Known about the structure:
This protein is an alpha/beta fold. Helices cover 32% and strands 28% of the residues. The protein has a single domain (3-202), classed as 3-Layer(aba) Sandwich (Rossmann fold), CATH 3.40.50. The protein contains 7 helices and 7 strands. The longest helix is centred in the last third of the chain and has 14 residues, at 160-173. The radius of gyration is 16 Å and the shape is globular. The two termini are 22 Å apart. Residues 13-19, 31-34, 69-70, 125-126, 128-129, 153-155 line the site of guanosine-5'-triphosphate.
Amino acid sequence: MDEIFDVSLTGHYCVGKTAVARRFVNNVYDDGLYIPLEFSCKTIEVETQHESQDNGNKKRVRFRVWDISSNYGFRDTRPLQYKRSHNIILLFDLSNVSSFEHVPIVYRDIKKYSSSDTIVYLAGNKCDMHAAISKREIYNLCSALGIKYYEISAKDNIGIDVLFNDMYHEATKRDLTNKLNNNKNQYSYKLEDTKTDGKCTML
Ligand SMILES: Nc1nc2c(ncn2[C@@H]2O[C@H](COP(=O)(O)OP(=O)(O)OP(=O)(O)O)[C@@H](O)[C@H]2O)c(=O)[nH]1
Ligand SMILES: [Mg+2]
């Protein structure tokens, strides 16, 4: 069976969480999306350090991407999402100052509910647009929070595959992927439902 790797996307409203999920999973981009909390899946082959008999230095990994809605109606499900996430991308919109100012608030929420080994990445989306936040401000915030930063664009497909790949390799280094795969039944969704790539619904 393929290895499973969960990634959750969070951040202020309209920063592009759904657009990034759709770009990564389906390689498409639409303007003006709204889709509530859901997850979608994509299987890719990643390079590994260890050689296996059937697949050489490659391993099939099923990425499950959770799109955590910023919508007020989903406020009660957010703590649960954070609790079960080991890999979280906290997005802001590079063209929107208030989305950046909101980052520490979302980060505090993540820290409050997630487990101590959860890895958080900061991603400035919409790098195809004029940036309203300076690199210095971003650098200062990342240093203060102690997190890594990626610049991405769902629209122009910039930096997204690199970000997801790096997350996987970092989690592998810290042995988080084994933890997840050894605890497959702890959540209230059925793994069988994630066997097909594309969109899945939460139970
Ligand atoms: N220019 C540009 N626009 C983008 C990009 N990503 C998303 N958008 C636009 O930003 C708007 C919000 O995108 P969504 O993906 O719906 O944002 P969201 O964070 O999921 O929003 P909520 O679920 O409502 O919190 C839409 O109009 C997108 O088309 C990007 O990389 N570049
Ligand atoms: Mg959305």
